[in-house]
Every structure is written in structure tokens, then in C-alpha cells.
Write a structure and sequence with these properties.
The protein has 458 residues and is α+β, with helices and mostly antiparallel strands. Among the domains are: 129 residues, no CATH class; 75 residues, RNA polymerase II/Efflux pump adaptor protein, barrel-sandwich hybrid domain (OB fold (Dihydrolipoamide Acetyltransferase, E2P), Beta Barrel), CATH 2.40.50; 102 residues, Helix Hairpins (Orthogonal Bundle), CATH 1.10.287.620. Helix content is 29%, strand content 33%. The strands form four sheets. Strands 2-11-15-13-12-16 form a six-stranded antiparallel barrel. Strands 3-10-8-5 form a four-stranded antiparallel β-sheet, with no helix packed on it. The longest helix has 48 residues. The chain is elongated and about 185 Å long.
Length: 458
């Protein structure tokens, strides 16, 4: 100190000493004003308003499904003895392309071939019975003709000395018996012919069962699943066992999306849809709503409706049963001013509001409530809501009322006469250790500036 006083007493250095002392006083005053003990301890997290495109969507998770799926089963029981060949000449397997009529598998047909032989024999026997019935019918007709002739002669002579009463009665009885035998012969012929039809039906059934031993593809498509192996026995009872699952056309796929009842009102036929799959996480696929199923399901008291989304798969990249993260596009807003939803939800404590904007209304006396002015009626748009943003003002905040539009869940469309891109607004109160909001003097020494962390922006 003595040396400093001696230094200042020197005539040539007195002016320089006063200049250094003035700078030190100015720095101390700046520290006291901007960040000293007398400043407020309020601190905030800030975010800047941005401009961009806003898309309002409904998100859901669904499953990629083939547009048309055919489940090929077996109508007869037996052991699988062989598989057929696909279009490429290889044995039918997973992913094989098959055409309509392509043999997929063969079931052991020995029992069914024996039934066909037995049915054919029964048909031949029934036809032989028809021939016999026809021959018997001819005999009955001849006997009827003879009995009818004798009965006419007996009627002409009558009971007399030329024809006894017993002969007259015998002629009449023979005629009646012959006529009854004719009816019996005709009925036997009809029965024999019906027996032929029955035997032919049994033969047709046996042939059909024999044909069922050869499993053929009913459509052109791709085998999604093969559910049997050679040597495996399939049992056809009440339900036909499923052998193959064939997708008719994998170039057209669907996404079955369960949509919550709270969002189903926003979904409509033809609505554009975007989705991603984990197999190609960086690629966005497009589609549109094709159908809204009305059979709702309830899971844990949550009602959902299945929405079918149609999508094109000409390149074949999408595969069935992939999990799809779907977004139904409800509305788009190009080049609008956006604010974080957190900024519109945040409310300051009364002591955090700049004194000039505090009110003494009833609401202002409640914690977390601050009375602020509202926009004039002519400035309001009924299609827009009202919201408040909070702007930092040194160690306090001041309100800025805005009109609120659509939101995508993270950002919200806003507008107002005092809004500009890049304007910083409060999104939350900073936790201990984060920076006190408000401007800071660029002349504050590093020693004092380090006492506080830098202001954090979100």
C-alpha cells in the first residue's frame, strides 16, 4: 500500500493511477448491478421461437399384412408323402412362388384308392341289378298278357257247362296276380336304377377323396408359411388342418392399425398415411386409409378400432408381419411460427413476474396465477385459441398473449403482432445450478462471472 501511494505521488503517473481506479470502480458497480448480492435469484430455461412446417398427426402401431391371404388345408386325413414343385422347379417351401393348380403336397392315397375300387364294383353290381329288373319286368308283362287273355275268355263263357265255377275264379285270380306282379317288377326296376345312382354317388365321393390326397394351390401367390413336413400325419375332423399359407399378391399390402376411440373420429377413408418399419428405420413409406372396421375391441377398458391402411409394395421390400409405426396425417401448416408446448403450459409464480405486469386481482393472489391483460375482441380468431408466453426481463418475466393454432404434440402454431422468429421464451424454471435469466454485462470480470453457471437454453 505504501509503495502504491508512493507510485501515485509521482507527478507523471498520477493520471494513470486515477484511470485504473476508475476502471476498478466501474467493474465493481457492474458486478453489483448485474449479478451481485442484491439481484433476484429467479432462473429460467429458455427456448427460441422457430419457423417451419407443422404436421398434425395421430400416431399408432400396426402390423403389415398381405392384402389377400389364402389358408390351404386338407379335407382328408393321411400321411404327407411328398411335396410338389414350385415355378422355379424346386421343392415347395417357404417363399416359393406357385401358380393356380400347382401341386403343393401329396397325402398317402392307398386307403382312398381302395375305396374307389370298392365303389366301382358297387356301381357295376347296381347296373347288373337294373338289367335283371328289366328282364323280370318283361316276364311280368308276358304273364300279365296271358292271364288277361284267359280272363277275357272266362268272362265270355261265364260259369256254365263249358267252364266250371272254379276255373272261372282261377282265371280271374291269375289275372289279378299278374297285374300285381307287373307293378312289383316296375318298382324293382326303379329301385335298381336308384341303386345305380347311389353307387355312382359313392364312387364320385371316393374319387373326390382320392383327388383330395393331392393338395393343389387355389391361387397364384407366394407361400408365406408351410406348416407340415414329410411323414407328418394330418387329421381332418371338424376343422380342416392348415397346411400352407399363401399370399395372393405381395405387391399390395395392408397395415392393420388399432386406433384409440379418442382418435378414431379424426380418421377418414382415403386419408394419407406415413409409416416406418424397424427393418428400414430411415425410410418413410406412404399409404392411405382403405377401411375402418366397426367391430371394436376392448383391452383393459380401452376401446380400439382396426383401421386398414393400403400401401404399394412394387419393389417387394416390405414383408408381411413387420411392425409399422403409423402416422395419420390430419392437417399441415407450411411455414408457420412455432412455439414449444412447454412454453405455453408454463406459469410463473407471482414474485417471478416483472412488477409492471403484476395485478392485484383475485387470481394474482393464488400461487402460480398472474393477472395479465387479454387481447382485444377484434384481434381474436374463433378458429384459434388463446395462450400466453413468458418473455425474460432481466431476472423476471413478462407475459405475451398469443393466438394458438394446431399442435403436433411437441410444437404449436402461434401468431401475434409482437412475435418474431428467434424470440426467446421461458419453458421452465431452472433447477439449482442453472443460470439466472436476464442480460449480463459484457464487462463483468471472469472471476465474478464464474460464480454463476451460464444461462441454459432448451
Amino acid at each position: 500500500m505504501i509503495k502504491l501511494i508512493s507510485f501515485l505521488k509521482h507527478p507523471g503517473r498520477k493520471f494513470l493511477g486515477f484511470m485504473v481506479l476508475a476502471v476498478l470502480v466501474a467493474l465493481l458497480a457492474s458486478w453489483w448491478f448485474w449479478g451481485g448480492p442484491g439481484s433476484s435469484s429467479h432462473s429460467f430455461r429458455l427456448a427460441a421461437l422457430t419457423r417451419g412446417d407443422l404436421e398434425v398427426t395421430v400416431s399408432a402401431t400396426g402390423t403389415v399384412q398381405p392384402e389377400e391371404l389364402v389358408d390351404v388345408g386338407s379335407q382328408v386325413a393321411g400321411k404327407i408323402v411328398a411335396f410338389g414343385q414350385a415355378k422355379d422347379g424346386k421343392t415347395v417351401d417357404y417363399g416359393s412362388f406357385v401358380e393356380k393348380g400347382t401341386i403343393l403336397a401329396r397325402i398317402d392315397d392307398s386307403l382312398y384308392a381302395a375305396e374307389v375300387s370298392q365303389a366301382r364294383a358297387q356301381v357295376a353290381q347296381a347296373r347288373a341289378n337294373v338289367q335283371r329288373a328289366e328282364a323280370d319286368l318283361g316276364q311280368y308283362k308276358a304273364k300279365l298278357f296271358q292271364a288277361e287273355s284267359e280272363w277275357r275268355r272266362a268272362q265270355h263263357l261265364g260259369p256254365s257247362e263249358a267252364l266250371s265255377q272254379s276255373d272261372f275264379d282261377a282265371a280271374r285270380s291269375d289275372f289279378e296276380i299278374a297285374r300285381a306282379n307287373l307293378n312289383v317288377g316296375q318298382a324293382a326296376l326303379r329301385q335298381a336304377r336308384e341303386a345305380v345312382s347311389q353307387a355312382e354317388a359313392v364312387l364320385q365321393k371316393a374319387n373326390q377323396n382320392l383327388a383330395y390326397c393331392t393338395i393343389k394351390s387355389p391361387v397364384d401367390g407366394v407361400i408365406i408359411d408351410r406348416r407340415v413336413n414329410i411323414g407328418q400325419t394330418v387329421v381332418a375332423s371338424l376343422n380342416a388342418p392348415s397346411l400352407f399359407l399363401i399370399a395372393k399378391d405381395l405387391k399390395r399390402l395392408q397395415i392393420w392399425v388399432p386406433v384409440n376411440e379418442a382418435d378414431i373420429g379424426h380418421i377418414r377413408i382415403g386419408q394419407p398415411v406415413t409409416f416406418t418399419v424397424d427393418a428400414f428405420p430411415r425410410e418413410i413409406f406412404v399409404g392411405q386409409v382403405g377401411k375402418i372396421r366397426l367391430n371394436a375391441t376392448m383391452t383393459q377398458n380401452v376401446v380400439t378400432y382396426t383401421v386398414e391402411v393400403n400401401t404399394d409394395n412394387q419393389d417387394g421390400r416390405l414383408m408381411p408381419y413387420l411392425t409399422a409405426n403409423v402416422k395419420f396425417l390430419l392437417a399441415t401448416r407450411p411455414d408457420v411460427l412455432l412455439a414449444p408446448n412447454a412454453a405455453l403450459r408454463w406459469l410463473p409464480q407471482p414474485e417471478q413476474v416483472a412488477p409492471a405486469f403484476r395485478t392485484r386481482s383475485t387470481d394474482s393472489e393464488k400461487p402460480g396465477k398472474v393477472g395479465v391483460g387479454t387481447a382485444s375482441a377484434q384481434d381474436r380468431d374463433p378458429a384459434w385459441g388463446q395462450g400466453t408466453l413468458w418473455i425474460p426481463q432481466r431476472s423476471f418475466v413478462q407475459p405475451l398473449e398469443v393466438q394458438v393454432g394446431l399442435s403436433d404434440g411437441t410444437m404449436t402454431e402461434i401468431r401475434g403482432s409482437e412475435l418474431t422468429e428467434g424470440l426467446e421464451v421461458v419453458v421452465a424454471e431452472a433447477s439449482p445450478g442453472e443460470m439466472v435469466s436476464g442480460p449480463r454485462s459484457p464487462f463483468t470480470p471472469t472471476l465474478f462471472r464464474d460464480r454463476r453457471p451460464q444461462q441454459q437454453r432448451h
